[in-house]
Amino acid sequence: MHSTLSYKRPKHSAARPANVSRPVHAVALCFIASSALIAPSLIAQSTAPLPLAQDTQQAKPIPQGPPIQPRPIPDGSAPHQKPLPFGPEPRAYPIPSDLPAHSFFDYEKPSEDPVGASDPLGSTYIPVDSFVYPLVLRLYSLGYADTAFIGMRPYTRRSLLHVINAAQDSIMADGNEEAEGILASLQNYLAAEMPAPGRVRGTVYGVDTVYTRVMGIDGQTLRDSYHLGQTIANDYGRPYEPGFNNITGFSSVNELGIFSLYVRGEYQHAPSGNGYSQALSAQLSAIDTVPFSGYNLHQATIPTGPVASTDTFALQEATVSVHAFGHEISGGKSDAWEGPAAGGAMSWSNNAQDIYSFRINRVDPLHIPLLSDLVGPFRYDFFVGSLKGHTDPNSPWIHSEQVSFAPTPNVRIAFQRSVIWGGEGHEPVTLHTFLHSFFNLNDTAANPSVKSSPQDPGARFSDFNFSWRLPFLSHYVTLYTDSIVHDDVTPPSAPRRAAYRPGVYISQFPRLPKLDFRVEAASTDTSTLRSLRGLFNYYETIQVQGYTNKGFILGDQIGREAKGGQAWLTYHLSPNEWIQLEYLNKKTPKDFIPGGTTQNQFTVAVVKRLRKDIEMNAWLQYEGWKAPIYFPGNGLNKDTTVSFQFTWFPTLRGLAAKAP
Fold this sequence. Notes:
Elements: H1 23-44, H2 132-141, H3 157-174, H4 177-189, E1 199-218, E2 223-224, E3 229-230, E4 243-256, E5 259-270, H5 278-288, E6 310-324, E7 327-333, E8 356-362, H6 371-375, E9 378-386, E10 397-408, E11 411-421, H7 431-439, H8 448-451, E12 459-469, E13 477-486, E14 499-506, E15 515-523, E16 548-549, E17 552-553, E18 563-574, E19 577-588, E20 597-611, E21 614-626, E22 637-648, E23 653-658
Antiparallel strand pairs: 1-4, 1-22, 1-23, 2-3, 4-5, 5-6, 6-7, 7-8, 8-9, 9-10, 10-11, 11-12, 12-13, 13-14, 14-15, 15-18, 16-17, 18-19, 19-20, 20-21, 21-22
Helix pairs in contact: 2-4, 3-4
């Protein structure tokens, strides 16, 4: 799910002050960051130079091992031998149950380095709202996909290929039908990355998806993640209002050697809405300590009415990348979901629209001698870009860095840090202010003179998350927690000041292998006195419009100073088809929002393949909510949402090179 909100630069910032950074500062910043993050990988791999990408017509093959031998089918006859064609076969559809899933994928995989460290080819990111991620998360929680880092999304197409290559032998050896089905579906999705034996991947191009979503809403909704709540969350901040809503879009994949280009754009329609009254907007501005006058009469974080209808074309994602030594180095708009939970990610999710950023992502696990012997292989991700929808100060920047370790196949541990700094009206975005925000660890919360000076390191938010497939139950139960803290080094160093989203995922039940259950709690209302009036988590004294982009919280949709939980019960019809029941509850206290707020949602969703290349994703949601500050009294406000999305998965084209 995705969105674009219009943003107009306030009049007071139309002319750039003399001390505001020039583009050269951002360029220098990118080179400094890229050097710092790539250096450890270069040192670790200096003894084993990686092959350079070749011209697609003369490409050298990745080292190949012996072909995988499919098991016999039950009647003892020879297995069905049908090599997967490179282009004409549609992808991502259920494999007939009377054939072994892997017999459709008679290709050769590398005999060494199964996690892809020596793969020189680049590939595009898979959007975090793709059907692929529920499959990968379930495969991992079934006890496979040991090289996947479930708290670092998105994956690239080839990094996912490396994960399933590494998992294939154990899946086939165990004979787990659910895992085999998921493996087959993922291999089918990545068919263009796996040419027939004797050939290597060359150019891949074409339309990846074409989709349309029609959505009808009856009743007044909530559209304010920074204060009262959201009726529709984790949807890229797309516009929605009561009435008829529509998105219609497409995505395109283009890969050539080490280069790749991904584009997703869509038309968005939402009807006009009432929005908040001037009195309510002024009251919420006072809570945020934002002056409600002049250029702040229409803030992105406060939907002041009347809300105009939306009819626009939005560029949801657009990323050009180059692959170098196991990294995707990219620029443009790309997704991020930094956490193991399903209902939200404390540090970064797709609740808000993607930002334009420069990014360096170690897409495959890195092993450094001695260090990895202690903490296991690890990955890291860094990106930096500007935030929109901020007017006080205007257009600050944010950088995010995450490092995730895999000390055992069953454990993932990650540390993440985000810093919002600069902005017109405060301090300029320069190389100096970036480095100061990047390296400074001093506590400035008790020193207002520093916060208002050029020495301000910015609004700092630190995240810690882990996941653990439990001993003796590693094929059944995964325990995980995501946490974030404001103005502390990391949540484990300040547990009482941290916000949390813990969860448990049961990927299958005895004698019910198609049924899974997930439950999560969430709280940003910490037990310290700092957590009052909504002025702690996702808020900051200088960056008063907080941890948002175009009005929506970048992290967990639970919002500021709130408590709640979610639960999902899912029955899998096939690897990429399911029926799901979901329940959500959220409460906000009276010291933040006068009168408090309460939300309850009940959702039924069905994902079904109408044809092998056409998916229907339909859902019905009933919501009941109370917000006396919005609608006085204790009456229950109700809204119902019905949505149908149809997605076509065309066949990607490719020019595979013949292996010498």
